[in-house]
Every structure is written in structure tokens, then in C-alpha cells.
Amino acid sequence: MITRVVMPKLSEAMETGKVIQWLKKEGEPVKGGDVIAEIETDKANVEIEAFGSGVLRKILVGPGGQVPVGEMIAVIADPAEDISGVASAPSPPKPAASPAPAPSATAAAIPAMETYQSAPATTRVVPLTGAVAPAGGAAPAPGRVKASPLARKVASQAGVDLRVIQGSGPGGRIVRRDVEAALAAPRTAPAAPPPAAETAAPARPAFVIPPRPGAEYDDVALSPMRAAIAKRMPLSKAPVPHFYVTTEVAMDRAWALRADLNALEGQPKVSVNDLIIKACALALLRNPGVNASFQGAAIRVHHRAHIGIAVSLDQGLITPVLRDCDVKPLGQIAVESRDLAERARGGRLRAQEMTGATFSISNLGMFDVDEFSAIINPPEGAILAVGSVVEKPVVEDGEVRVGRRMKLTVSCDHRVMDGAMGARFLQDVKRLLQEPLRLLV
What we know:
Oligomer: single chain
CATH architecture of the largest domain: 2-Layer Sandwich
Number of strands: 21
Order of helices and strands: EEEEEEEEHHEHHEHEHHEEEEEEHEEEEH
Largest sheet: 6 strands, mixed
Helix content: 10-25%
CATH class of the largest domain: Alpha Beta
CATH superfamily of the largest domain: Chloramphenicol acetyltransferase-like domain
Strand order of the largest sheet: 11-21-20-19-14-17
CATH topology of the largest domain: Chloramphenicol Acetyltransferase
Number of helices: 9
Mean pLDDT: 82
Structural class: alpha+beta
């Protein structure tokens, strides 16, 4: 059976994808579910799986090739099958061998799916973090840099210009250890300007600022992820009528339960976010109108709780999806959520792990944020914003004591639900966190 491998659509805004590397070679056997390639999307690097079994007969788009969503990039078939009619489509043109040097590694990473106005000639364009200059202060060499995919990824995340690094791999190829060595090397401080000669000068008014060397500002090129966010967010905030509901949760019992669970030997460590994920999943089943999305002529009510977990990266934000949270025990949620976050930061998510969320959670509590309002990720109908768990004076039974409190804010699509529906959902989440043993049964 012939299986066409096509460039998948992994987000509403995705129009093209770039093949980073093939993990299977032509002629190698492939089983359904095998990871066969790594592609770059507007959000992250994603591993794609084979949906059929056989042999990887033909690779149509090589590493570095960028093609529209839905275009065929490879063919899987049995060894004896005739694939000439399927694989005869011409491959897309490959990028030039020696492109003109880009202003920065970050600017070079912007995909062809978007068109941006270039910066004027009088403005410097720099990466998000300072590049490491060579010891002698020499300018980077032009031309394509030979570097491994992992070295390019580490350099892009750290803002290092590969053109200023000496490679130690075969043929001078830059590998990961070269980038890490460049990051660890001390940076040379600019030489201090010579002291100005002491000459008689007329008195000048106070607070006059002398001329300052260097550019007055830098234009930072958009990374592919930041470009996608810039394009995607107005499509959510502008047309989706948001409303917000906030509550404060007493987290004393949940905090104590978490400490007891984490004291058990051989058991996975549970975070506050894991407790919130489980509470939201159970509350979504009790309030199906919140576990819903706007479909234009209808409202789609979901019967399973697939929760998107916002993960912050240097380049922006990504939301991998943890499926069936309503039926998974708390320990499994803890293991899987941690694994998803780690692989999201390492660019190793699978295609199916980036789509299909029915509700999302964005937690900024680790940044000492009391409360905030998150923007809904269409087509979902709601998203929960989580603040810090803080100790504060509280009044109970006429007495003041120290308690742990956390604020939750749910952002809702008013086309899908009304205020009372969002409030009832938040009330159920609050009750589950304040009676946390319900999360274990």
C-alpha cells in the first residue's frame, strides 16, 4: 500500500513547513508510528510520524527544503510497488548554496511563509541576545556556515552567530560543544575611551548630557515563533469577545497534600500546576459548556478534556496538549506534563501533541505574578490564567491567621458561554482545589 507523506498543518496560522532532517533513509523499513523526520513550523521543531508501513521509497524534499502545507514530501510503499506515478512530481527548488549573509542568526531563521519590511540601512538588526565575538574582534566570515542541526538550534536559542565560531568537527563543522564553549568563554569588554584632554571650557548648564557613542536603538528581528504569535494573537483578541472571571482559592490543604504526595518514595513529584490540570479536567466535565468551541454556525461541545499547557520558550510561547486529563490519575498527569514541557523546550514534540486542545492553562505563578488575564487560543472557548500561591493574612471564624492563597482568572469566549457559566466552572475548580482529596478519587 502506497502512503503519501505530506507536510502537516500543525496550527491555524501555519502555511509552510521546513524539513530539518530525515531520521529514516531511502530504502529503510518503516512502521506506522515511527518518527521519520523533523520539521520546523512557525511554532517549534516537530517530529512527524509515519502513518503507514513499508519502505521509505522516495524522499521528495531534502533537508532545508520548505514547502506549503499539504504538499507531498516523501513516499512509503512496499518494495515491489510501482510508485512512479506518485513520486514523479518535481521537488520544490532548493535554497541557493551560498545565500547572502543575514544580519543575524535570528533574522535568518524567519521562514518564507511571511513577508517582512526590511530595516532601513541606518538601523542595526541584532539577535535577541548578544552574539559571541571572536577573541580578536574579527568580523564574521561570509558564506554558509557548516554546522550540525543541534549546534544551530543551541546557537539560535542562545543568540550566538555561528559565523564567529571555529568548528572542531569533521571538515571544520561546528558541533554543539563548539557553541557551548563559545558561550562559556569570557567576553572581551570594550576598551575604555581615552580620557579627554583637560582644556579650558566655558561653564555649561547643569544636566547637559554629553554625546554618547553607539547606536541609539536596535531593531530586533522577529523569530519564526514570535512572528507567528504577532500574526495569531490579533486574530484571537480582536474578533473573539473576551470576558473575565476571577476568584481567590485557599490552597492550604492542596499545598499540604502535595507535600505528602512528594514525600512518598518512588512516586512522581506533583506540582501545583498538576493539581490545577486535574481540577480543571474534572470541572470541564461538570460544565461542558466551557469545554466547547465556536464553529460559526454551531457550538462544538467536547466530551473529553484535552488540556493545552502553555510553555514559555526563549523565542515565545508554545502550548503542547495533554490528552484525556479527566480520566488520568494525578501521578500520570505529573509525569506526562513534565515530559511534554521538557520536550517542548528541546524542540522534540510530536505533531499530534500540538493540536486538539479543548481548554488551555497559562501559569505565571513561578514569576511572582499575583494575577493576569490570558488570551484565548482559538478555536478553544476558554483559557485559565494562574497566579502565584502566596502567604497572606486571612480571616477565618473571626480570627486572623496566615493562609496560602492563589488567584485564578478564566477568560471566556462570550459567543460560546455567558458569565454565569464561566463563574460556575471557576467555582467547581476552586472547590476541588480546596477539597483536594477529590482529585485522587
